[in-house]
Every structure is written in structure tokens, then in C-alpha cells.
Design a protein that fits this description.
CATH architecture: 3-Layer(aba) Sandwich
Oligomer: single chain
Distance between the termini: 7 Å
Radius of gyration: 16 Å
Number of domains: 1
CATH superfamily: Formyl transferase, N-terminal domain
Largest sheet: 7 strands, mixed
Strand content: 15-25%
Helix content: 25-40%
Shape: globular
Amino acid sequence: MIKLGVLGSTNGTDLQPILDEIANGDLKAKVSVVISNNQNAYILKRAEKNNIPSFFISHKNKTREEFDNKLTKLFSEHRVELILLIGFMRVLSSKFCLNWKDKILNVHPSLLPKYAGGMDTSVHEEVIKNKDKETGCTIHLVTEELDSGPILIQKKCSVSRFDNAKTLKEKVQKLEGLAFLEAIRLFN
């Protein structure tokens, strides 16, 4: 059973399918800890509802390295083997990426390398603006270079002429949880 650590700044929507698969016995994993840099992030409440240790660590008035050292301490204390970035809205330090090399997965809301570096709805707005016919999500290993690590899983969906950034985000988010599940299974 692999021990997962989660970093998130938002709702943690992609965490729910993982928790569901663990609960029904279809994923041999345990979410050992959830950490957020946003005190009001729903991902912390989602963790609490599932009896998962959760922590808020502010990044304000800290260097990137100081913040990342606190993350490493908590992940180590909870014996985390694989870190999932689920809506985590910060760039991690090179030192952190090297310390956890090949043990950090990120979900990106596009078919990388397209729209690398973009975040959240801005990516979906670009897809619409550029009249792309398909989009999706990518699970990749995190490296020191933003959105450039080896791609593990990509899931695709079509873009309809009726889609907007909000509807596209909903379509892509449905794929993200599935992509995470596939990626985690690669490590089991």
C-alpha cells in the first residue's frame, strides 16, 4: 500500500475519486496527510471529513525554501512515498523537487506541452480562444522546470463550439481524477 501526501490550494475536487477508490478497496493506497497553503481551502475540510491529518502552512513571510522545508518535514513525519499536487497554486523550490525526485505528481489542465505554465481557467480560456478541437489533462512527474517533467497519463475530451471556460473546466476535471488514479497505480 502506497502512502500518499497531498498538496492543494483549492477545493481538492480530484482528491475525491482517489478517496472513493481507496474506500471501496479498488486502490491500494492511503492518503497520509493533506497540506494547504490556503487556510480556507475546501481540500482541508475534505481531508477532515475523511479523518486524514491536515495542515495549513502559510507561505507568506517565508522564502520558498523555508516553506518547502516545512512541507518536507510533514511529509517525512507521515512517511509519504508519493506526493500529489491537486490544485496547488505555488511553484516548488528546486531543492524540494530534487529531494522528492520521481515522487511528485502534478495534474495540469491541458494536453502538455500545450499551455505549459498556465493555471486553472486561464488555460481553458486559451483553448477556447485558439479554437482547439480537443483538450484534456496531463499527469506528469514534477521536475525543477515548470510543467516539463515526464508525462505519465493524458486524458482527452472534445471541445464543442458551445463550450466556455467554465464548461471546459468541468469536462477536464472529470478526467483529472481518473488520470490521477491511473498514475497512482503505476507506483503500486
